[in-house]
Amino acid sequence: QVQLVESGGGLVQAGGSLRLSCVASGRTFSSYNMGWFRQAPGKEREFVANDWRSGEGTRYADFVKGRFTISRDNAKNTVYLQMNSLKPEDTAVYYCAADVRAGGGYDYWGQGTQVTVSS
């Protein structure tokens, strides 16, 4: 069982920045693929970014390329999402997720953290 706890959400003006953090339990964090997703009111949850097992690369949704950066600190069992140049349409609950089976799908999800971007 892996527990994920997100933090760092809040209210920010358009053009501002936030850094989300997600701390994972478990002894083999470096072997997890980690992802960030978001869900806006009335919309389905969508992929934002992921970080393959440490050192294997990252992938981003087109709508965040050049603005968001995913990174991880294996010593702290933490994955981050640095969000710059935020737009009102980035307003959503952001979730981190862990794929512990190396490509088997995201098995574990955090509780989410609210990000609100005002215009």
Sheet-strand content, in percent, reads over 45%
SSE order in H/E notation?
A: EEEEEEEEEEE
Provide the helix percentage: under 10%
**What is the mean pLDDT?**
95
Q: What separation lies between the terminal Cα atoms?
A: 40 Å
What's the story with the biggest beta sheet? 7 strands, mixed
Radius of gyration: 13 Å
Description:
- A hairpin with a 6-residue loop joins strand 5 (46-51) and strand 6.
- This protein is mainly β and 119 residues long.
- It is globular, with a radius of gyration of 13 Å.
- The protein has strands at residues 4-7, 10-13, 18-24, 33-39, 46-51, 58-60, 68-73, 78-83, 92-99, 108-109, 113-118.
- Strands 2, 4, 5, 6, 9, 10 and 11 form a seven-stranded mixed β-sheet that branches. It has a four-stranded antiparallel β-sheet with strand order 1-3-8-7, with no helix packed on it.
